[in-house]
Specification:
Number of strands: 8
Number of domains: 2
InterPro entries: GAF-like_dom_sf (IPR029016), HTH_MetabolicPath_Reg (IPR050707), Tscrpt_reg_IclR_C (IPR014757), Tscrpt_reg_IclR_N (IPR005471), WH-like_DNA-bd_sf (IPR036388), WH_DNA-bd_sf (IPR036390)
CATH architecture of the largest domain: 2-Layer Sandwich
Distance between the termini: 63 Å
Structural class: alpha+beta
Largest sheet: 6 strands, antiparallel
Organism: Chelativorans sp. (strain BNC1)
Protein name: Transcriptional regulator, IclR family
GO molecular function: DNA binding; DNA-binding transcription factor activity
Keywords: DNA-binding, Transcription, Transcription regulation
CATH class of the largest domain: Alpha Beta
Length: about 260
């Protein structure tokens, strides 16, 4: 009996128990990760040593899952937010949270409210860390808990940092409809961008308000969000006007500490 035959293109990969298309897609991510200023298709093709058609097909697939993104203004491909989320899992669980804790403590002490840290994961925000208020212990979600991205303070802060196209894509894939969000939702995100902090006005729980601001990563993409939450009797409209800039300021400091911009 002769040696087993393998399809020519997949021979070595099959023998090693690997999938060629996956290896190629990962190689493209590695190439883009090494070129933070983005790359044109011909540059990626040359470095990855793949055909133009194969490279474009893989990039288009990765783009649909937000692992890469194409900027039509400069014609360059960049690492996408989903790749950063996956790659940052190690950091989020260890150094990332540890680095954020001192800033959260300071925010808690400045506002006397519970400070929270969360990341976007799909259609939710996952709470990574929490420093409870010494005066009024009140929170909607504990560490590890999930909150809908569209109505939580941290979620709205992160969404406001996305391009409009991505915001529409996130909402389109959610169970909630655009009509259910109301005609003012887009305006709310615009206001959030302008003032640099988001407000959850009892959107998650009756009697609880949240003020949040986004923290950016090295590629100027939203990395996470930091917030304070408290009872409406404490976070009044007048007080939010003072607390909002504090949250935004601490978020900017944390952005710098984490190497963001």
């Amino acid at each position: 009996m002769g040696a087993p035959e393998f399809p020519e293109e997949a021979t070595s990969n099959e023998r090693l128990g690997t999938v060629q298309s996956v290896e190629r897609a990962i190689s493209l991510l590695e190439v883009l990760a090494e070129h933070g200023s983005g790359m044109r298709l011909r540059e990626i093709t040359a470095v990855a040593e793949l055909s133009r058609s194969t490279t474009h097909r893989l990039l288009t697939t990765l783009e649909k899952r937000h692992f890469v993104q194409f900027n039509r203004h400069d014609g360059r491909w960049y690492i996408g937010r989903q790749a950063y989320l996956v790659a940052s899992a190690f950091v989020h669980k260890r150094a990332f949270v540890a680095s954020a804790i001192p800033y959260m403590r300071r925010l808690r002490d400045l506002t006397h409210e519970t400070a929270n840290l969360g990341i976007a994961e799909g259609h939710d925000v996952v709470v990574l860390a929490q420093i409870e208020s010494r005066e009024a212990r009140l929170s909607v979600a504990k560490v590890g808990g999930r909150m809908p991205i569209h109505c939580s303070g941290m979620g709205k802060a992160i969404l406001a940092a996305y391009p409009e196209k991505e915001v529409r894509a996130v909402i389109a894939n959610m169970a909630v409809s655009t009509d259910a969000l109301g005609p003012c939702y887009s305006d709310d995100l615009h206001v959030t961008r302008r003032r640099a902090y988001a407000i959850d006005d009892e959107g998650l729980a009756r009697g609880v308000r949240c003020v949040a601001s986004v923290v950016y990563g090295a590629n100027s993409e939203p990395l996470c969000a930091i917030s304070v939450s408290g009872h409406v009797s404490r976070l009044t409209d007048e007080r939010i006007e003072a607390v909002g800039p504090l949250v935004s300021s601490v978020a900017q400091e944390l952005t710098g500490a984490l190497g963001g911009r």
